[in-house]
Amino acid sequence: MLIEQAPYELTVAKKAPLLLAQLNSLTAHHREFCSEYESVVTAQWPNYAVANQLAAVPYLAVSLFKHLSLKSIPDSEVFKTLYSSGTTGNPSKIALDRETAGLQSKTLVKIMQHWLGKERRPMLIIDKPSILDARNSFSARAAGIKGLSFMGRNHCYALNEDMSVNIDAVQQFCSEFAAKPVLVFGFTFMVWQYFVEQLKQSKQRISLPNAILLHSGGWKKLEDRAVDNATFKQAVLEHTDIPKVHNFYGLVEQVGSIFVECEQGHLHCSSYSDVLVRDAETWHPLPLGKEGILQLMSVLPKSYPGHSLLTEDRAVILGEDDCLCGRKGKYFNIKGRLPKVDMRGCSDTFTPTVRERS
Ligand SMILES: [Zn+2]
Fold it and tell me: How many other C-beta atoms are found inside a 10 Å radius of the C-beta of residue 272?
């Protein structure tokens, strides 16, 4: 089982057969237990029996989870429902049973421990304390903070309720923990807009030279402000002394199998996930270096048919097993969202239009 492997040590020769077998078994499982999924597979892949390669695994448009309640468990076994943050329209609804929820947490811990070490670190959260109140509990921000907070201890919230920096609390945290390995976590836009920018404007700085900053949540709003990854890292270093900054990418539809950015600036697949990039016209898989629509595979989703999903993000796969950071697996960059027009094309139908698939 891939879940028992270390996150970044499998080369493609070892990983590919294990991954294909697990994805095939998930496809069979969901066809049996989710009638909507079975209908999609039958309609879109009429001759499908079993996938002989990764690219032949059936996939759903991720937007489908916004329109349908797709699950492979009876209602009585729903342990928890996750909702996406979608800026417009319906949120995705993801039904988890105890088994899938457990797998997700276990995997997230395995991946995070690779980057953070096994010991819980003092944790500075770039958000306001009320983010975890009941009324926010369905937001992706709350879910992300909750998900990562168990990697930390001595949690400190960096922002006040009005989103200003709680500089006293932050300085207190720094004076107590700056000499130790610290975890700082926040959503990309929050870190930029409400932390780094505010420190800059008020000519304040903090010093956490042993910290690692993890951030997630998309670059769209920052790109609108012409802030790229290098600018982001530089500004973080300048105002906080945090030397290690890692973005990570993941979908609420595949919680747990996240993609973390390495020291080379590349997002890495773990042993529990993989990616393909498809041409937006033909849906054919594209070779390394070509930009297309990102497809995500994960071995975790058992309670809902989310093991192979076509996202609404554009990406380029840069290589496999040979990143200079030494980690194995595919690595890639996100190039932005699909234009609205294409997104509608994906979400109005079960999967992208019936065309040739491979
Ligand atoms: Zn790397």
Answer: 28
